[in-house]
């Protein structure tokens, strides 16, 4: 059998700007180029899920559901793909089953075709209900492995997980390498083993933080990977995905030739260059080039941009290296969870707090306490007993599926939000993000939400806007900054 052309999923409209630009690309910025994206012939467009839902309401004053519908009018034929956090849906905690099902039903209705479903702990109990719902409403179920490296993770375990996802109804398997840890030869071995043992189509998602992502995609293609994720070059590399044009050029006139048009891709790249410089420069992280230290601290691409932004806002950008060093220590204490939302947020927030307070676990976030109680699922390895003691004392963690502890929530949410909600989509938005959705819906009711077609252009910060303050007298001691509230740190460390 002749090898198939290598399929490409374009992540430009979701993970690329989430990883590089704090998820601030608006629908209005996407619309003028949507027809050309449609013309490329991608396997799919990853354009929803992850942090885009939250950010649309919180920062862009957009209805996230309207993004799907608006883009679908211009680009109706290329499959639309989203990232779904299993029982977390798009939030940062577990939601009841009725909310999971209603969300999936509405996502399919609005135009999502492929659902990449993962769990931060690779606890398949947290993926099962979402997978069943996607099958019920006619979507494609892509079961995702949250790839990581640690003393308790192995190739054999990942292959077994892929087989389990197949038995649960997955239509394809994704190796989700959110922190750029999958080296070229590891990808070759893992893709080959999954293709051999499981027999489902395999897709590879990685980031370029460590600098070897293109080589990883090449070795995965040699092993038979069906589809790879990449981003248009003007929003690629760094903590984003590898550049599409490079992948297309590498496989040109090869047996895995993608068949995509480099001239068209160049036009698309030029467009996003302008969007990035004109509309999103405020959110540049300053993190450029490869950083192989990611193999040690394992922070995913989407979290890096927001971590820098948060520390910068708190006047603590100089503590960046300290936070990077603290992250793997907290991760070990918590049983080596893969660092992907929400565990990356939980670990990252606690690492920031440990550094800024100057004492490890002097303050423990509610999320860490819930994690120790088993409310996020089954950790890959036992937790540090000292952390558990400080976090929950002598309370006993739950052993079952966390969602079994949660009462149905749709009707209650519908009653709470009342007339502000004009659709089931509004109710789900409120259920996932109560504060942000209420604020957005109130603005919409009052006619203060700009048309979604209008790009949200952020004011560029002028360096000289504020006169420099005179230096404090030499004898005056420096006043320490107040402790950053946990919720402020938590709200900013959004990633995958």
Number of helices: 21
Helix content: 40-55%
Mean pLDDT: 90
Choose one word for the global shape. Answer: globular
Q: What composes the largest sheet?
A: 8 strands, parallel, barrel
Number of strands: 8
Structural class: alpha/beta
**Oligomer class:** single chain
Low-pLDDT segments: 461-494
Q: N-to-C terminal Cα separation, in Å?
A: 36 Å
- Cα-atom radius of gyration: 22 Å
Order of helices and strands: EHHEHHEHEHEHEHEHEHHHHHHHHHHHH
Trace the largest sheet across and list its strands: 1-2-3-4-5-6-7-8
Provide a compact summary of the structure.
The chain is of the alpha/beta class and 496 residues long. The chain has helices spanning 12-20, 27-40, 52-58, 64-74, 97-110, 128-136, 155-167, 184-197, 213-222, 244-250, 262-279, 294-297, 301-313, 320-333, 343-357, 366-372, 385-392, 410-417, 424-432, 434-445, 486-492, and strands at residues 7-10, 44-49, 80-84, 114-117, 140-146, 172-176, 202-205, 227-230.
What do you see in this structure?
This protein has 496 residues and is α/β, with parallel strands linked by helices. It is 45% helix and 8% strand. The protein is built from 21 helices and eight strands. The chain has an eight-stranded parallel barrel, surrounded by six helices. Helix 2 (27-40) runs antiparallel to helix 11, helix 5 (97-110) packs parallel to helix 6 and helix 19 (424-432) crosses helix 20 (434-445). The longest helix is centred in the middle third of the chain and has 18 residues, at 262-279. The radius of gyration is 22 Å and the shape is globular. The model is unreliable at 461-494 (pLDDT under 50).
């Amino acid at each position: 059998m002749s090898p198939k052309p290598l399929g490409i999923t374009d992540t430009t409209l979701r993970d690329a700007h989430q990883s590089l630009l704090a998820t601030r690309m608006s629908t209005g910025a996407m619309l003028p180029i949507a027809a050309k994206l449609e013309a490329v012939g991608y396997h799919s467009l990853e354009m929803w899920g992850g942090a885009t839902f939250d950010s649309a309401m919180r920062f862009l004053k957009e209805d996230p559901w309207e993004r799907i519908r608006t883009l679908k009018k211009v680009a109706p034929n290329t499959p639309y793909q989203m990232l779904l956090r299993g029982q977390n849906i798009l939030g940062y905690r577990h939601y009841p089953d009725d909310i999971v099902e209603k969300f999936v039903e509405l996502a399919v209705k609005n135009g999502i075709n492929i659902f990449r479903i993962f769990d931060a702990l690779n606890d398949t109990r947290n993926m099962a209900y979402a997978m069943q719902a996607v099958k019920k409403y006619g979507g494609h179920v892509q079961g995702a492995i949250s790839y990581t490296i640690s003393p308790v993770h192995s190739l054999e375990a990942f292959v077994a997980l892929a087989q389990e996802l197949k038995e649960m109804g997955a239509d394809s398997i994704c190796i989700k390498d959110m922190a750029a840890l999958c080296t070229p030869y590891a990808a070759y071995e893992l893709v080959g083993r999954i293709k051999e043992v499981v027999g489902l189509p395999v897709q590879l998602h990685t980031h370029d933080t460590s600098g070897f992502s293109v080589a990883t995609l090449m070795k995965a293609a040699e092993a038979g990977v069906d589809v790879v994720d990449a981003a248009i070059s003007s929003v690629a590399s760094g903590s984003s995905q590898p550049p599409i044009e490079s992948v297309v050029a590498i496989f040109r006139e090869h047996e895995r030739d993608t068949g995509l048009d480099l001239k068209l891709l160049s036009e698309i790249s030029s467009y996003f260059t302008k969007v990035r410089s004109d509309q999103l420069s405020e959110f540049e992280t300053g993190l450029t080039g490869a950083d192989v230290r990611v193999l040690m601290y394992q922070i995913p691409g989407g979290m890096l941009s927001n971590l820098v932004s948060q520390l910068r806002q708190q006047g603590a950008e100089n503590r960046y290296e300290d936070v990077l060093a603290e992250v793997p220590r907290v991760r070990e204490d918590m049983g080596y969870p893969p660092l992907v939302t929400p565990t990356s947020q939980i670990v990252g927030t606690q690492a920031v707090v440990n550094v800024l307070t100057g004492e490890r676990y002097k303050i423990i976030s509610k999320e860490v306490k819930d994690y120790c109680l088993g409310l996020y699922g089954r950790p890959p390895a036992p937790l540090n007993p000292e952390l558990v003691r400080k976090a929950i004392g002598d309370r006993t963690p739950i052993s079952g599926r966390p969602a079994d502890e949660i009462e149905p929530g749709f009707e209650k949410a519908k009653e709470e939000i009342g007339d502000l909600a004009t659709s089931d989509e509004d109710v789900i938005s409120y259920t996932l993000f109560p504060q942000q959705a209420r604020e957005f819906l109130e603005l919409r009711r009052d006619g203060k939400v700009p048309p979604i077609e209008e790009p949200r252009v952020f004011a560029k910060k002028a360096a000289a806007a504020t006169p420099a303050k005179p230096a404090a007298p030499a004898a005056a001691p420096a006043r320490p900054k107040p402790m950053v509230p946990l919720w402020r740190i938590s709200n900013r460390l959004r990633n995958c």
